[in-house]
Amino acid sequence: QVQLVESGGGVVQPGRSLRLSCAASGFSFSSHGMHWVRQAPGKGLEWVAVMWFDGSNEYYADSVKGRFTISRDNSKNTLYLQMISLRVEDTAVYYCARDGGASVGATKVFDFWGQGTMVTVSS
Amino acid sequence: DIVMTQSPDSLAVSLGERATINCKSSQTVLYSSENKNYLAWYQQKPGQPPKLLIYWASTRGSGVPDRFSGSGSGTDFTLTISSLQAEDVAVYYCQQYYKTPTFGQGTKVEIK
To answer: Which of B105, B76, B102, B103 is nearest to B1 (CA)?
Structure first.
């Protein structure tokens, strides 16, 4: 069965960096685009970034552009999110989510989600 | 960005009764050449990640019970739970994928 397991969250001061990981199993990781979606405490969902199945394209929400970098290692079935210059407003649970399309760019439908990892940015 | 607005923010429905959630987009999410609406619905139970319920506005996801249905086109969409069960207590989100993905603010469904 599809499994997505995020890790790397924690408490960090404003301006510092953090790298999240998402280990995937149970499906052909290299065939699917992968996303990061976040949810601030008690709030709704916000899409953060996507990387295409083959790593050829990546796109970001305006709120994180220039500060966050999505990447993937298809040999390790792992998705990453490098976050720099963190702000208090980046505090959220970060989910990795599989794109519903296979071997296409990105449908932007999120058909499987991990349990999430909490990132708290606070001084 | 396309703004998604859901109504109501919350609703309480008796077990076995119908629950209806509305979602309106600030611009059309209908891709005319495909005749497809780029609209999905998700269910998020407390302490859990979201789960895909509906995509293409009306296609149920894998394993989703048939009491869940989606309808609408263009800018106005509806998620209907035909007979509310206790396990349906959750927050429901609509999401457009016509452009950069955006979500509605969520609708909390409770038992009356």
So the answer is: B102
Contact call for residues B40 and B52 (beta carbons, < 8 A): yes
- The arithmetic mean of pLDDT across residues B55-61, rounded, is 96
- Would you call B58 an interface residue with chain A, using a CB distance cutoff of 8 Å? no
User: Which parts of A1-123 fold into alpha helices (H)?
Assistant: none
Q: How many CB atoms lie within 10 A of CB A116?
A: 23
Average pLDDT, rounded, for chain B: 97
Return the residue of A nearest to B48 by Cα.
A115
B72 lies within 8 A of chain A by CB: no
Does the structure show a pLDDT above 90 at A103? Answer: no
First to last CA, chain B: 36
- CB distance B41 to B94 below 8 Å: yes
Is A104 a residue whose pLDDT tops 80?
A: no
Residue A101: per-residue pLDDT: 85
Per-residue pLDDT reduced to its tens digit, B74-85: 999 999 999 999
Query: Are the C-beta atoms of residues A91 and A120 closer than 8 Å to each other?
Result: yes
* pLDDT exceeds 90 at position A72: yes
> Which bin fits A56, alpha (ψ -120 to 50), beta or left (φ > 0)?
alpha
DSSP-derived 3-state class of residue A49: strand
Query: From the list A45, A111, A115, which residue is nearest B61 (CB)?
Result: A111
CB spacing of A47 vs B42 below 8 angstroms? no
